[in-house]
Write a structure and sequence with these properties.
Layout (H helix, E strand, L loop, with lengths): L12 H16 L3 H9 L1 H8 L2 H7 L16 E5 L6 E2 L5 E2 L12 E5 H7 L37 E3 L5 E3 L6 H13 L6 H31 L2 H18 L6 H10 L3 H4 L6
Antiparallel strand pairs: 1-4, 2-3, 5-6
Length: 271
C-alpha cells in the first residue's frame, strides 16, 4: 500500500456539480428507502464510475490497496465508507454514510478480489461513536486502513514470502489490530496470485541489492571504474523498483529496509 494524495487533486467541475446535485437529493429524501433508490438508480450508479480513469491516474493505474496492476481482478470504484449501510465487525448493520455516496473524497480504486471481501464492513474502534450525517469523518477511528490517509500505508510491510504483515517499525496494539484486520478484510494474503507476485518482486529486489553491494565493495577495494559504473547501474535499477509508479513498490521498500544496510536504505531518500 502506498499513500494516495487524493485530496491534493480534484475532479472537473462538471462532475462535481453533478455529484452535488445528487447529494442534495439525498439530503432532502424522506427516509432510507428513498435514499437507497437514488443511490441504486442505474444512471446514478454510473456517476462514480465516471471517475474511474481519473482515480486510476492518481495511483499510476494500480489498486490503491494491493498495488497490483492486473492480478487483483477488474477495477472497482470503492466507497471507503459504505454508501448505504455499514457493518460492524460482528456483522451488525448501521444505516449510515449515505451522504458520501457521491462524495469523490470517499472514493478509492480497488481490485474486485479485495472489494468483494471488504463488502460493506466498516467497523470502528470499540467505543467510538459513528458520525451523524454530514459530520466530520475525522472524529471516527476506523479499523480499516485507508490508502488516502498519509499515516496508514506505512503501517503495512511485507516479508520474504510475499505476505503482508504489520510493520516491525511500529508497536502500538491498536495499529497492529488495524493492520491485521485490514489484511484479512481486503484479502491481501489469501489471494495466492497476489502473494506470488509480491514474492517475485521481493526476490528480484533482493538480488539487485546484493549485486549492487558486491560491485560497490569491489570498487572500494580496487578502485575499478568498471565496478563503480556497475554499482551505479544496479543502484538505478533499485531506485526504479521503489518509485511509486512501479507495481508493488512498497514490497521493494520493505525488502530494502530488511537488509538493515544504511548504504541501500539511503535510496529511500532519493525516490
Amino acid at each position: 500500500m502506498r499513500y494516495i494524495p487524493l485530496k491534493d487533486h480534484q475532479p472537473d467541475q462538471a462532475w462535481i456539480d453533478k455529484a452535488n446535485h445528487l447529494i442534495d437529493a439525498l439530503r432532502v429524501a424522506p427516509d432510507s428507502e428513498a435514499r437507497k433508490k437514488i443511490i441504486d438508480a442505474d444512471a446514478n450508479k454510473r456517476v462514480w464510475g465516471e471517475l474511474k480513469g481519473w482515480l486510476l491516474s492518481l495511483s499510476h493505474h494500480k489498486c490503491w490497496f494491493s498495488e497490483a496492476k492486473d492480478c487483483f481482478s477488474h477495477w472497482d470504484v470503492e466507497h471507503y465508507r459504505p454508501k448505504k449501510s455499514a457493518k460492524d465487525r460482528d456483522g451488525t448493520e448501521y444505516d449510515c454514510y449515505w451522504w458520501l455516496a457521491f462524495d469523490w473524497t470517499n472514493f478509492r480504486i480497488c481490485g474486485n478480489v479485495g472489494n468483494r471481501k471488504k463488502g460493506t464492513f466498516f467497523p470502528l474502534r470499540d467505543g467510538c461513536p459513528r458520525i451523524a450525517p454530514f459530520g466530520d469523518v475525522r472524529l471516527e477511528e476506523p479499523l480499516l486502513l485507508d490508502p488516502a490517509d498519509p499515516d496508514d500505508p506505512s503501517l503495512i510491510s511485507f516479508d520474504v514470502e510475499g505476505n503482508a504483515i504489520f510493520s516491525p517499525a511500529f508497536t502500538d496494539p491498536w495499529e497492529k489490530e488495524r493492520v491485521e484486520y485490514s489484511i484479512e478484510r481486503y484479502n491481501l494474503n489469501d489471494y495466492q496470485p497476489l502473494v506470488d507476485k509480491r514474492k517475485i518482486v521481493w526476490n528480484d529486489c533482493w538480488m539487485r541489492i546484493q549485486e549492487y553491494l558486491r560491485e560497490l565493495n569491489a570498487y572500494h577495494q580496487s578502485r575499478s571504474m568498471i565496478a563503480h559504473q556497475l554499482s551505479k547501474e544496479k543502484a538505478q535499477q533499485i531506485r526504479k523498483m521503489l518509485h511509486e509508479d512501479q507495481e508493488f513498490s512498497a514490497v521493494a521498500r520493505a525488502c530494502l529496509l530488511n537488509t538493515g544496510d544504511p548504504r541501500v536504505a539511503g535510496f529511500l531518500r532519493s525516490t
